[in-house]
Amino acid sequence: MVNPTCFSNFLENSKPYFAMISLQFGYAGMNIITKVSLNRGMSHYVLVVYRHAFATAVIAPFAFFFERKAQPKITFPVFMQIFILALLGPVIDQNFYYAGLKLTSPTFSCAMSNMLPAMTFVLAVICRMEKLDMKTVRCQAKVAGTVVTVAGAMLMTLYKGPVVQMLWSKYIQPKSSYVTDTTGTGDKYWFLGSVLLTIATLAWASLFVLQNKALKTYKDHQLSLTSLVCFIGTLQAIAVTFVMEHKPSVWKIGFDMNLLAAAYAGIVTSSISYYVQGLVMKKRGPVFATAFSPLMMIIVAVMGSFILAEKIFLGSVLGSVLIVAGLYSVLWGKHKERLENKDDEIPEVIKEAHTNGMSVVSVMDGDIEANEVKKAEANKLSAVAVCMPICELPMKAGK
Fold this sequence. Notes:
By secondary structure, this protein is mainly α.
């Protein structure tokens, strides 16, 4: 018979995994739909504006209804955190990502995004959120994984190679407007797209690190933080679009793929993803939240080959293998670190000290069963139990 307690613990521990896996499917769909929309001529600046306008409209009512009480005061430092979050995510990350996506392909863009954990690790070390001790194996694994990830990204950028034919590609003939224009893209534009995607990933990693700090202020108001970031990001994106796009016609949108791309990206990959990422980072830290990006690459590769007849190059395949290997080397190091932190936080032996002839028992685990306390009282032990509940430390680092 299954122990209900064990089953409930399993479900509780599995929630972060299910949440991040579901987000990868959402991101994969966004990449395919956005690529189709960009191929049909939609401005990526306008797409970013509409995306976050939809996100704000969806998430703000929930934030007002569920979190209107005890709102944190928006001081100038807090406002600057939100302002920079909006600048890093909605403006820099997504504009550069869409520009890179337009010059390359969905699968290539997703593969480059796998550099995210390595970049987050480097930024976390710079910000002193991550301790670097090269004497430990886990730290060596994280550093080696970061180096391998960067090497894979450079391989993908500098080497294109021959086309890798999928078994089903020759039987698929999508509409011409949906076809990914990778064969006609020159090496110059492919390299430029790679650079843009790298900048976008760096901004995304910075977003994760800063969001981890902002969550300390909005630890009980994640919806409010998400709605504020989306709203300010919308205003910033409007200003950028007015500077970059001078034709009023670019703002026109109808009931077509452009509307679907904006609505889908806003609802699924902005409002929902920002909120879910915040919840996951609150429990597992930034690196864990970025650990599932290879799954998105696989999903996009399969969907892209079916829907867009996307051509995948050998350089992308080899680079992706290196990036994924480096990624999981970093994650293995983080897993070992988390196990060590758990062992340090919950000692198995209860430390006993004697003070003024009294036996003082210091208990570090707050989950003491009531019957144990009753037994202690029944045995008439002259003891004082000092219970110190442990707050779970965030695992500091990690679209």
